[in-house]
Design goal:
With 267 residues, the chain is mainly beta. It contains 1 helix and 16 strands.
């Protein structure tokens, strides 16, 4: 299609005057626009408590050797309306994040200002000491990933995925819709594992010698287990004693399946 010279000149003048040029970047094809970022580092002793309140977005929490908490947050926008098209020079404000530290606890929250043109989505990456208590990690829609942590954890989300690996301690997961996949190691008599999904599946990885009282309910699906539970499978409900029955495990998939699998032994 041909464009009249006067119209072309006017478009160029407007773009240059606004210091904004339309670019196509293949890195953002099918992904969110690049967003503004927030970062904060805090000293944090092992055994401290962390809570995080977010509306929508992905949350990744992993343990490390340092005695400090690293908080990184990035605003995520809507998916581009065309393949990787965004405007160079467009400003993306950092997410409005509040971090409050009081002694041995840290509270992190996303301050909502409504879903504006940047999408109202914030993604978090946290690095904490290996020993930490995740007192309340609350998310709307998105993915929660926790790894290399021991302590206790409460994870609550409306929709998405919850994936937990190399975790030890008490665990409470509540998910409205999606998938929970959790690896719980070194289960102790005082540990309690509770996972409930309204619409979706649960996959729990346990060591072959795990000891716990197990109750698994899947009224809208089925329960299967690679560990011996002493009853025919698949079943709608399983009540069993694993090992000497030290800890407690309660799994509920209201409209989904439950799978209990053995942790693969590393050579």
């Amino acid at each position: 299609m041909k464009t009249k010279p006067l119209l072309s000149a006017l478009i160029i003048l407007l773009l240059s005057g606004a210091c904004m040029v339309a670019l196509v970047d293949p890195r953002y094809q099918g992904r969110a626009w690049p967003g503004g970022t927030f970062r904060k580092d805090l000293d944090l002793k092992p055994g401290a408590a962390i809570s995080l309140e977010n509306a929508d977005g992905n949350i990744e929490i992993s343990g490390w050797k340092e005695e400090k908490l690293e908080v990184y947050a990035e605003r995520g926008g809507e998916l581009p309306k065309s393949a990787g098209l965004y405007f160079y020079g467009q400003r993306f404000s950092p997410p409005d994040v509040r971090v409050r530290s009081t002694g041995d606890s840290v509270r992190i929250s996303t301050l909502e200002k409504g879903h504006d043109e940047q999408g109202g989505v914030v993604h978090y990456v946290l690095r904490t000491p290996h020993s930490v208590n995740l007192d309340s990690i609350r998310n709307g829609k998105g993915r929660i990933a926790v790894s290399d942590i021991y302590g206790r954890a409460l994870l609550d989300a409306d929709e998405g995925e919850v994936r937990i690996s190399n975790y030890s301690g008490s665990l409470d997961v509540r998910l409205g819709s999606g998938l929970v996949e959790a690896e719980v190691l070194d289960l102790r008599p005082q540990d309690s594992v509770r996972i409930k999904v309204e619409r979706g599946d649960i996959v729990l990885f346990l060591e072959p010698d795990a000891a716990a009282q197990l109750i698994a309910d899947a009224p809208g699906g089925s329960v299967l287990s690679e560990l011996e539970v002493g009853q025919p499978l698949p079943a709608k409900r399983v009540s069993a004693k694993l090992g000497d029955g030290g800890g407690s495990i309660e799994l509920t998939a209201v409209a989904g399946d439950i799978r209990i699998r053995k942790v693969e032994e590393t050579p």
